[in-house]
Amino acid sequence: MASTTIKSTYSLDVDTVRALDSIASRWRVSKSEALRRAIRIAAHQPQVAPTEATTALDALQRSLKLTSRAADRWRQEVRSERRTSEPRRRGR
Question: What's the domain count of the chain?
């Protein structure tokens, strides 16, 4: 009985591709088969509740009542400060 396959294209970072290569080699299967197995394994894992650290961070962010606009403003200020404090680079 033939199995149905769908060809798809995904972009993976270098470390992920290296890990996939390593897993496929260790399991002695193709990278496609290793990816299929990894996805099946991940799909059957129980859903993980947020950790205490994540919950604490969420509570902190809520308590600051930080809006997206205020966060963007802060980000721009930090970038500006970093640019003015870093030594001049050649070619700039």
Answer: 2
Tell me which residues of the chain have a pLDDT lower than 70: 1-2, 88-92
Rg (CA), the chain: 23
Contacts of 12 (CB under 8 A, 6+ apart): 20
Buried b (16+ CB within 10 A) or exposed e, 13-29: eeeeeeebeebbeeeee
Residues 6+ apart with CB under 8 A from 13: none
Domain that holds residue 60: 52-85
CA atoms of 1 and 16, how far apart (whole Å): 33
Helices 14-27/31-43 angle, 10° precision:
100
The model carries a pTM of 0.49
